[in-house]
Design brief:
The complex is a heterodimer of chains A (470) and B (72).
Chain A (H helix, E strand, L loop, with lengths): L8 H10 L4 H19 L2 E4 L1 H16 L11 E5 L26 H8 L3 E6 L33 H8 L5 E6 L5 H6 L3 E4 L19 E6 L2 H11 L29 E4 L1 H5 L6 H16 L3 E4 L5 H26 L6 H7 L7 H25 L2 E5 L25 H5 L3 E8 L5 E8 L4 H15 L15
Parallel strand pairs in A: 2-3, 2-4, 7-8, 7-9
Antiparallel strand pairs in A: 1-3, 4-6, 5-6, 5-10, 9-11, 10-11
Helix pairs in contact in A: 2-3, 7-14, 10-12
Chain B lengths: L10 H12 L9 H18 L15 H5 L3
Classes of the chains: A alpha/beta (470), B mainly alpha (72).
C-alpha cells in the first residue's frame, strides 16, 4: 500500500470522498514528514501547523456534509513566500520584508482557500525571486533532496524541494525567466508555467510585470492539470490577466499523442555552450518515444537563443530595478549579495535599451507563434542543459547565468511544462520541456502525461524522502 | 566605485562608474566585482537587441486602454 505522501491528488481525493481517509490524517502525515525531513532540506520558511489542521478539519466536515469544493478540497499545499497570505508573514525571503504581514490574500491563495485546500506553510525562495542561491539571507537556501550538497534551482527553490522530498504533492511557484521550470527540472518534479495571463499575478510580489507567470509545481502531470484548473481564471484587477475560459485540463489527459505534430529545435540546446551529452541523449530518447507513441516529430530551427535571452534579461533587470529602486539606493546592505548585484544593473540601462527589448519581444513572439507553432501542436526542448550544480560551485561574484533554456517562453508567453526525462550518471534528475500554443495547456499536459507514463521515471524517489517519518 | 584610481580602471569599469555616478549610486565595495561582471554581460545583451528593424516596428507593450480601465 502506498504511503500517504505518494498518493496523487486524484487518489487522495477519491479516498477523502469515500471516507477511507480524512484530510486531517493526510495533513498530520504531511506535518510529520516536514518535522522529520525539512531540517535537512530547508524547503519551508514558515510551517502553519495550526492553520493547516483547521483547514483540514473544515475540509473533513464539509466533505462529510456533501459540500465538495473541487479536486483540491482537503489536499495539502504550500506557497512560495512571495504569495501574500492574509495575516501570515510574507517575507520574499528578504530582510527587507521580514516583518511584512499582508492584509489580503493573493488572488491565487484566495482561489486555493475557496477550493478547500489545506495550507501547510510558506516556502523558501531566492530573495525577491531573483537573488540566489544565497547564504546571506534571513533563512537558509533550500537544498536538493536528491543530493543535499546540490542546488535546487530557483527561484521557486522551496516549492520544488518540498515536492521532490514528498512533503506535499503541490506547491505554488512563480516564473519570470524559468523560476518554476528550473527548480522543477533540477529536483525531478513537474513544473508548469502557464500562458502569460492564465493565472493572476495579483498579490504576488513582482519581479518583472511583463514576464512574471504564476503556476504549480507537482510530482505528476495529472497533479499539475488538477491544480491549474483551480488557480486559472480571469482577474479583472490584474492588468495582464487574460479573459479566457478555463477548460477541464484533465478531460483529454489520457488521450495520448497520436497525430500530434511536435517541433524539435535540437540546435537550441545541442549547440548551446555547456550542454551535457546526457541531456541531449535524454531529449533524443524522448523524441523517439513521442514518435513511437504516434506523434510526428520534426526538427526545426528557431531564432538564436541569445536573442530570447537578451530580450528577457534586459526587460527583467529594468523592471526589477524599478521595483526596488528606492531600497537599492537607501538600503543596499540589506539585500543579499546576488540580489543587489543583479538588480543594481538596471541603473545602467537606457530607455532605448528597454524599448528595443520590447520591440524584439514582439518580433520573437510573432515569429514563434505564426511560424513554428502555426504548423506544430507542441515544441520539445531542454529545460536545464545539465543536472543541478553543487551549491559550493557558485562564486561570490557570479553574474546571472543560469544553465537553462526556459527564458524564450517567458518572452513569448507560451505555456511550458517541465517534467523529468531521466537521470544523470551521478543520480541527479534531468528534465525536458514541452511548449504549447497560447492557452493550449491542455495539449501540453496531455503530451506530458503520455511521456510520463512511457518514460517511467516517476517511481524513483530521493533516498531522503524514503526516510521513515516519526 | 573607482577606488583603484582612474588610470588603473579598465574602460568598462570607467564606463560603469560614470553610469552609476550619473544615477547618484554608490555601489558597496564588497559588491563591486560582481556588479562589473554582470555589467559586462549586460552590455553584450544590449548590443544583441539592436537587430535591423524598420522604424515602424512596434514594441510589445503598446498602450491598451481596455486593459488599463477594466475592473475599475
Amino acid at each position: 500500500m502506498k504511503p500517504l505522501h505518494e498518493l496523487s491528488i486524484a487518489e487522495a481525493g477519491a479516498r477523502l470522498r469515500s471516507g477511507q481517509l480524512s484530510a486531517t490524517a493526510l495533513t498530520e502525515h504531511a506535518l510529520s514528514r516536514i518535522a522529520s525531513i525539512d531540517a535537512r532540506v530547508h524547503a519551508f520558511v514558515l510551517v502553519t501547523r495550526e492553520r493547516a489542521l483547521e483547514d483540514a478539519h473544515r475540509a473533513d466536515q464539509e466533505l462529510r456534509a456533501g459540500l465538495d469544493r473541487g479536486p483540491l478540497h482537503g489536499i495539502p499545499y504550500a506557497l512560495k513566500d512571495i504569495f501574500d497570505t492574509a495575516g501570515l508573514r510574507t517575507t520574499c525571503h528578504s530582510k527587507l520584508r521580514i516583518d511584512h504581514v499582508p492584509a489580503e490574500d493573493a488572488f491565487v491563495e484566495a482561489k486555493l482557500r475557496a477550493g478547500g485546500a489545506v495550507l501547510l506553510g510558506k516556502l523558501a525562495t531566492h530573495e525577491f525571486a531573483l537573488g540566489g542561491p544565497s547564504f546571506d539571507l534571513p533563512f537558509p537556501p533550500a537544498r536538493n533532496p536528491w543530493n543535499l550538497e546540490h542546488f535546487t534551482g530557483g527561484s521557486s527553490s522551496g516549492s520544488a524541494a518540498a515536492v521532490a522530498a514528498g512533503l506535499l504533492r503541490f506547491a505554488m511557484g512563480s516564473d519570470t525567466s524559468g523560476s518554476i521550470r528550473g527548480p522543477a527540472c533540477f529536483c525531478g518534479a513537474v513544473g508548469l508555467k502557464p500562458t502569460y495571463g492564465r493565472v493572476s499575478r495579483r498579490g504576488t510580489f513582482p519581479l518583472s510585470f511583463a514576464l512574471d507567470h504564476c503556476g504549480p509545481l507537482t510530482w505528476s502531470v495529472e497533479d499539475a492539470a488538477l491544480a491549474l484548473g483551480v488557480i486559472a481564471g480571469h482577474d479583472a484587477l490584474d492588468p495582464g490577466s487574460a479573459d479566457e475560459p478555463v477548460p477541464d485540463y484533465t478531460a483529454r489527459l489520457k488521450e495520448g499523442v497520436h497525430g500530434l505534430r511536435v517541433a524539435y529545435p535540437r540546435h537550441h540546446f545541442a549547440d548551446a555552450e555547456g550542454t551535457s551529452p546526457e541531456v541531449i541523449a535524454a531529449l533524443d530518447a524522448a523524441a523517439r518515444t513521442l514518435t513511437r507513441l504516434g506523434a510526428t516529430v520534426e526538427e526545426v530551427r528557431l531564432p538564436d537563443f541569445r536573442l530570447f535571452s537578451a530580450c528577457g534579461r534586459v526587460i527583467m533587470i529594468a523592471e526589477g530595478h524599478a521595483i526596488h529602486e528606492r531600497d537599492l539606493r537607501e538600503r543596499p546592505h540589506d539585500f543579499a549579495r546576488y540580489t543587489y548585484q543583479r538588480l543594481i544593473l538596471g541603473a545602467t540601462l537606457s530607455a532605448a535599451d528597454l524599448t528595443q527589448a520590447f520591440r524584439l519581444r514582439r518580433e520573437l513572439t510573432v515569429t514563434l507563434n505564426q511560424g513554428v507553432m502555426k504548423h506544430h501542436d507542441l515544441l520539445l526542448t531542454a529545460t536545464g542543459v545539465g543536472p543541478a550544480p553543487r551549491l559550493d560551485e557558485f562564486p561570490p561574484d557570479w553574474p546571472l547565468k543560469m544553465p537553462m533554456q526556459t527564458i524564450p517562453y517567458n518572452v513569448t508567453g507560451n505555456p511550458a511544462l517541465t517534467m523529468p526525462s531521466g537521470f544523470s550518471s551521478t543520480g541527479l534528475p534531468l528534465g525536458l520541456q514541452l511548449v504549447g500554443r497560447v492557452f493550449d495547456e491542455a495539449t501540453v499536459l496531455r503530451a506530458g502525461a503520455a511521456l510520463e507514463a512511457a518514460l517511467g521515471v516517476r517511481d524513483r524517489r530521493p533516498l531522503l524522502a524514503a526516510s521513515p517519518s516519526r | 566605485m573607482d577606488k583603484a584610481g582612474p588610470e588603473a580602471a579598465s574602460p568598462l569599469e570607467r564606463e560603469l562608474d560614470l553610469l552609476m555616478r550619473r544615477q547618484g549610486i554608490t555601489v558597496p565595495e564588497a559588491y563591486r566585482a560582481g556588479v562589473l561582471a554582470g555589467y559586462e554581460d549586460l552590455r553584450r545583451m544590449t548590443a544583441v537587441l539592436r537587430q535591423p528593424r524598420p522604424a515602424e516596428s512596434e514594441p510589445s507593450n503598446v498602450f491598451h486602454l481596455d486593459a488599463l480601465l477594466r475592473g475599475r
